[in-house]
Sequence to fold (292 residues):
Amino acid sequence: MIFVSGANGQFARAVINSILEDAGAAGLAVGTRNVDTPFARELAERGVSVRPADYRDPGLMQRALQGIQKALFIPTYDPDEVRLQQNLNAIGAAQAAGVRHVVYASFLNAECPLVEHSRAVHFPTEQALAASGLHYTILRHALYADLLVGDLAETLADGAFRRPGGKARCAYVARADLGCSAARVLLRDEPPGRTYSETMEQNHSGEEVAALMSEVFARPVRYEPVAAADWPQYMTRKWGVPPEISRSTLGTMQAIEAGEFDIVTQDYRDITGRPARSLRPFLESGRESMPA
Fold:
């Protein structure tokens, strides 16, 4: 039986929907802190085993993982100072419940010391899995391409795409594509101990992103750099992101400026047999979903 944590989150939903499309509900269990959301109820109605699960509660996690052979652990969006212990709780629960194989959703170039959530959460979790005795797979995700269009209406309205990075190139990948590849790893007989770095097969600078937006949306878009040091305040002021979350992005933005994510791999192709969508078709899918 397969288990997906954090079922109400956007990445988990992409994974779950891919599994349902490819293999149906039989043999699928999901865990969530809230089993009463519309999505969780819909899954239960479709025959998915929906289980209360919370990384903060090792006993509850162990019960949620009973009968599970392979589990996908997705980190929470809680503050970084508590997320490592949450992940360690989940690993311990997997050991106690007899889970055979754990798949962990990590971050690209997880060894990079600039990135707070990699330094404090992802890389130590990878190391803990390697020492756990469990079979494991690490899925290191590039930055979500979805974050490039989170403020698309504003970008198109004033013609400015504002992000840190300057001329540095950065790897992206669509969240929905990552859902497909994670589902494939969960559904197949995956050899243990592999680490995949999942990216589009071309990376981009901020100027290139803006140029593609201009072409796809047929409106002039220019790139306006935002200094990494100013980005957390920008996120809070412009997008309403809580300060404790926006502050944790500073290292990621510094890493982009330093070229730490100037990485291109074919690992996504190795998992799925096809390349991840490039940025142009990703943006085109966003154009098609825009109101007329």
User: Anything to note?
Assistant: The mean pLDDT is 95. The domain at 2-145+172-200+263-276 is CATH 3.40.50.720 (Rossmann fold).
